[in-house]
Amino acid sequence: MKNILIAFTLVLFTACSSKDASKDFTVENDLDIQTYIAENNLTAQKSSSGLYYVIDTPGTGTQPTTTDNVTVAYKGYFSDGTVFDQSNANGISFSLQQVIAGWTEGITYFKEGGSGILLIPSSLGYGNKGRSSIPGGAVLIFDIALISVN
Q1: Euclidean distance between the first and the last CA atom of the chain, given in angstroms as a whole number
Q2: What is the pTM assigned to this prediction?
């Protein structure tokens, strides 16, 4: 009986895991982002991909393209305020071709010296599987400052 219960639990767990892995979070993520925007009195733009962004300071320098290398200072957190990653004030340098799609697109809305917020649905982040401390289906929010286009 115990073996049957263990087997049933494994089948159920596998079925639930597969179901979650294929779940479409598009509507749920969009509602979560809209709620966050309303609760925080933000004025955000929505792109055709589903990315929301807030430009606090547009910047005056070079505006990057999706193939540029950039240096960005950032803080990444969930809509409940829990921080999952953060750079120091000097930022980090990377190619916009080597990051999540939400960053590849979102950073291009700013010029050097610009700052704002990226509100990224899971489809432009880590998808249904998540990564490390980021659960599958999670909306990611980043405060960003574009330091330079390299």
Answers
A1: 64
A2: 0.85
**Who wins on pLDDT, 135 or 12?**
135
* Torsion angle of the four alpha carbons 23, 38, 117, 80, in this order, in degrees rounded to the nearest 10: -60
* Pairwise CA distance, residues 103 & 116, whole Å: 12
The boundaries of the domain holding residue 52 are 23-149
Residue-level pLDDT at 19 = 40
| DSSP for 118-150, written as a single string | EEE-GGGTTTTT-BTTB-TT--EEEEEEEEEE-
Say yes or no to pLDDT of 118 above 70.
yes
Q: Domain count of the chain?
A: 1
Sign of the dihedral through C-alpha 129, 133, 138, 142: negative
CATH number at 63 reads 3.10.50.40
29-49 mean pLDDT: 98
Q: Does a structural domain hold residue 40?
A: yes
Report the sign of the C-alpha dihedral through residues 121, 127, 128, 130, in that order: negative
CA gap 69, 150 in Å, rounded? 5
